Amino acid sequence: MSTANPDPEISVVVPLWNERGNVLPLTEQVFKALAQKTRSLELILVDDASSDGTWEQILEAQRREPRVRAVRHLRNRGQSAALWTGFTASKGPIIATLDGDLQNDPADFPAMLAALSSADLVCGVRTKRRDNALRRFSSRVARGARKLVLGVDFHDTGCNLRVFKRSVLQTLFPFDGLHRFMPIIAAGGGAVVIEIPVNHRPRVSGVSKYGVWNRLGRGICDLAMIAWYRKRQLKDVAWTEHPGDPASRI
User: Fold this and answer.
1) Model-level pTM?
2) Exposed (0-12), middle (13-18) or buried (19+): which is 169, by Cβ within 10 Å?
3) Which CATH number fits domain 10-231: 3.50.50.60, 3.90.550.10, 3.40.50.300, 2.70.70.10?
4) Of 62, 100, 147, 175, which sees the most CB atoms within 10 A?
């Protein structure tokens, strides 16, 4: 068992909502995937007010591994809120994220960390989706809508397997839906964003939290909001300061 490090170099943030059966396997897989890294690590498990015993499993994971940090919402606020809570609680200069359903593979983290040497944000692209037809279809529609409305074309903004430098947080703002638009907002704020292929696995425990409305209906509302924000965003503002008379500062 490793000793908790007060100043970790990598913070892994995982939002969880009713994922009781996935907590302990996910914890083991994250630490195994990063075991060869010399950089210190913390794993922040954020329970979004689960009702199935997820919190108890997070506490058990923390008992087994002191590098686990247990954070809990007092009421359900959604995936984006859980991610933002994890970002706020994190201490490392490098932050990594993945979903709590074990469909993201922590074994992809080393390659993503290596790719971070030439980028500010590295996003996974699920080249072989292990989702049902509805989820794959809605993702294709969402990608087409983003390209049409925003003029940007990231392959898979729905993949939450990401690694980024802490400076990226300065380009973001918290809102319900951030997890779907994070690469777009970060790139608009000047961050260098790249995508690399990652593994995707079938769900083996728990049930999906997404349906037609919260993948398409809410996505349309969020898309309109992001389009408005990008149009009104202040950036590339040039300015200068006159130094004044040096004699007046004596």
Assistant:
1) 0.81
2) middle
3) 3.90.550.10
4) 100
Whether residue 116 is predicted with pLDDT greater than 90 in this model: the reply is: yes
Domain edges within the chain: 10-231
Alpha helices in the chain (DSSP H): 23-33, 54-64, 79-89, 109-115, 133-150, 178-188, 212, 218-232
Contacts of 212 (CB under 8 A, 6+ apart): 134, 138
- Pair of tokens at residue 53: 């015993």
Q: How far is CA 177 from CA 21, 118, 152, 208, in A?
A: 25, 27, 17, 17
Dist CA 150 CA 227 (whole Å): 6
As a whole number of angstroms, the distance between CA 23 and CA 65 comes to: 12
C-alpha 131/C-alpha 70 separation (Å) is 29
The neighbouring-strand residues paired with 46 are 15, 71
Task: Output the 3-class SS for 154-172.
Answer: CCCCCCCCEEEEHHHHHHC
User: Which DSSP letter does residue 34 get?
Assistant: T
